[in-house]
Design brief:
CATH architecture: 3-Layer(aba) Sandwich
Number of helices: 9
Distance between the termini: 49 Å
Largest sheet: 7 strands, parallel
Radius of gyration: 18 Å
Shape: globular
Helix content: 40-55%
Structural class: alpha/beta
Number of strands: 7
Order of helices and strands: EHEHEHEHEHEHHEHH
CATH topology: Rossmann fold
């Protein structure tokens, strides 16, 4: 029986870090495993995949735009094609693909904002739905949300809303799947040293401010998922901020972020 691990947004950042760590865990483990890496940029994805060399893990790359229902449908097509080749189980799904935009909503591109909703919410939801029939007891899902999921944020309005959706959906899904023995974890990182800020700011901020080491953040999320945790928050600072949102009105939090946390865009 083939065992498959699926990682989206796998060509760089936390997606690539997930792939590295999972590959190291499974290489030489004696179980036939395939790791499916999905990302939009073909050359970058294939170049990264060539870094992964070892035993017992076959790496397959799929380069296409995951955005929206069409993107999720492509994943469903991949699973249907694989079913024709024999039985398989998806042991782990990591929905990491996503992006953000900085700036007040009325100064951002509405088309880009809608694309963000399609990728961060619609695609993630569809992929979960298409993959679940191929999972068994012991299977795990990690959906990458954000610390921004805990409170509405001015200058980050749509992104924070999409990640709030991801966290809410993930926790509800965890409740539904408990009896099937499938765990769901919402990973909620704060600032991590990836290319996120460069994309969100349209190149005006190359590096994430006060970014944490993605290796440590990803390792913590994998441990949290293995232990059945429903939310993964790595640092004490992130846990404190998430806790304090319980005492801050949503409007006050959004207004304060708008006034005091300007973001280049």
């Amino acid at each position: 029986m083939k065992h498959i691990i699926i990682i989206t947004g796998a060509s760089s950042g936390m997606g690539a870090e997930f792939a590295r760590q999972i590959y190291a865990q499974h290489s030489g483990a004696g179980k036939t495993t395939e790791m499916w890496l999905i990302a939009r940029e073909k050359d970058k994805l294939n170049q990264f995949a060539r870094e992964l060399t070892g035993r017992d893990v076959a790496v397959r790359t799929f380069a296409f735009d995951l955005c929206g229902a069409n993107g999720a449908g492509r994943v469903n097509d991949m699973l249907a094609t694989e079913s024709q080749n024999g039985k398989f189980i998806v042991d782990l799904l990591i929905n990491n693909a996503g992006f953000g935009t900085y700036g007040p909503f009325d100064e951002t591109d509405p088309v880009r904002e809608m694309s963000m909703i399609d990728l961060n919410c619609t695609s993630l939801t569809g992929i979960c739905g298409f993959v679940l029939p191929h999972m068994q007891r012991g299977g795990r899902i990690i959906n990458v949300a954000s610390l921004a999921a805990f409170l509405p944020l001015g200058n980050f309005a749509v992104y924070a809303a999409t990640k709030s959706y991801v966290m809410s959906f993930s926790i509800a899904l965890a409740a539904e799947l408990r009896d099937r023995g499938i765990s769901v974890c919402a990973m909620c990182p704060g600032s991590v040293s990836t290319n996120f800020a460069n994309v969100a700011s349209n190149g005006k901020r190359r590096d994430v401010l006060h970014g944490c080491d993605p290796h440590r953040v990803v390792a913590h999320a994998l441990r949290a998922s293995e232990r059945g945790h429903r939310v993964a928050l790595w640092s004490i600072k992130w846990k404190f901020k998430a806790f304090m949102t319980r005492f801050i009105g949503r409007y006050i939090g959004a207004r304060a972020a708008y006034i005091f946390n300007k973001r280049p865009h």
